[in-house]
Structure prediction request, 215 residues.
Amino acid sequence: MKTITFVRHGQSVANAGGVTMAHDAIPLTPLGQRQAAALADALTLRPEKVLVSAYVRAQETAHPFCAKLGLQPVLHPLMHEFSTLDSAKMAGLNGDQRWPHVQAYWEAADPALRTGENAETFHEFNARVAQFQGELPQLPHGTLCFGHGMWFALLIWRLLGFSAADSQGMSAFRRFQQGMPMPNCAVYHLVQAKDGHWRVQGVEPLMRQMMAVAV
Prediction:
């Protein structure tokens, strides 16, 4: 059976409620850097391949682990997080000030809505994740992916057989995503069965260990 492992990035400036930055440039906080270092020590994997999002926070999370094993991560063009809001329009706003705009976006539940030039539609996000899903069977056993929480939640949603192609599916996914355990540096395994289906397994001990770094 093939196993693919996914890691969410450590705490980022956006997670900590910081002032809006370009989506791809958001770095880890000092806590996020400590989480990434702790994860590198805790992960016992020897992956054949490491994939990483093009976003800085995912790359910074992968760096301690890859440096420890002398691995060169490969940037994957489909793995970056969903850009719901145009960062230019949110310039100067902190997390609390952004939150009403985030709520309004999801309440609209319009998969074709684009909030600005620096944002995606939900349709585009869903198509990206669907394309990656189609690549899963070709990934080597033991591949390790460093990415993002909402992105991975949508991958799981799709692997469970649910649709996210219309307003109803978009709203249902949002409820699922908000209830899914996804702390910073969360670790999940995808295990492919002989029939081609994928089983999702959260690595709770590692998640608890990463959450303890924040205490």
Summary: DSSP finds seven helices and six strands in the chain. The beta strands are 2-8, 50-52, 74-75, 144-147, 187-192, 198-202. The chain has a mean pLDDT of 96.
